[in-house]
Design brief:
With 199 residues, the chain is an alpha/beta fold. It contains 8 helices and 6 strands; from the N terminus they run ββαβαβαβααβααα. Helices cover 38% and strands 11% of the residues. The strands form 2 sheets. A 4-stranded parallel beta sheet has the order 3-4-5-6. Strands 1-2 form a two-stranded antiparallel sheet. 21% of the residues are buried.
């Protein structure tokens, strides 16, 4: 848990709030039992944090949301969550090109040659290929857009299916890139619960 010290010398720097995850989880469990929530989950947890919470939780996490895309496929974390019965949600599936921390030199998943090639093959946009690939992996997606046409395109991914050969080619992508690294590290990397030190 983190907060921001608005009155401090640097209001952008986080102020660690050393509240154990399980304490926050107990509150979520309470409101889940009251019927206020249909499901409760976690975001940006690493395997150790997931296991620690899982072992202590009365109501196990229903969902894990993390950055996941073809440059950061999160295969090990996905299988770990699956083993525990936790569904998996990807954010930044298309690379979140509008994120404030984006570096102009960073790779864009929509421009990866394989994605462009498959977009032409199926007469779809690169974004639709990325969303479809994730869906076929069994991972939920939450694409963000305020553009009506892009919103329509994001849902128009159920009239085609990538072949097994197509999916295998994604495994051959060697570039590994955590796109939100600079964002999280800009204010939270010194927090004792920072989950990404192994990236």
């Amino acid at each position: 848990t983190i907060g921001f010290n608005a009155q401090g010398p640097d209001p952008t720097q986080c102020k660690p709030a050393l509240i154990p995850h399980i304490d926050t989880w107990r509150v979520l469990e309470k409101y889940y039992k009251l019927g206020k929530f249909k499901a409760i989950g976690i975001s940006n947890f690493n395997q150790k944090q997931i296991q620690d919470l899982y072992d202590q939780a009365e109501i196990k996490p229903h969902n894990l949301q993390v950055e996941c895309h073809i440059l950061l496929p999160q295969k090990e974390l996905f299988e770990f969550a699956k083993k525990l019965g936790i569904s998996f949600t990807s954010y930044a599936t298309m690379g979140s090109p509008g994120r404030p921390s984006k570096n102009p030199d960073e790779p864009n998943p929509t421009e990866v040659p394989l994605v462009v090639e498959l977009a032409k093959k199926y007469n779809k946009t690169p974004s639709q290929i990325l969303l479809r690939q994730m869906i076929q992996r069994g991972i939920a997606v939450i694409p963000k857009s305020t553009n009506p046409e892009r919103l329509r395109q994001n849902s128009d991914i159920f009239d085609f299916e990538l072949t097994q050969e197509d999916l295998t080619k994604f495994n051959e992508i060697k570039l590994h890139k955590w796109l939100f690294q600079s964002f999280w590290e800009s204010f939270a990397k010194h927090h004792p619960y920072f989950p990404f030190n192994g990236y």
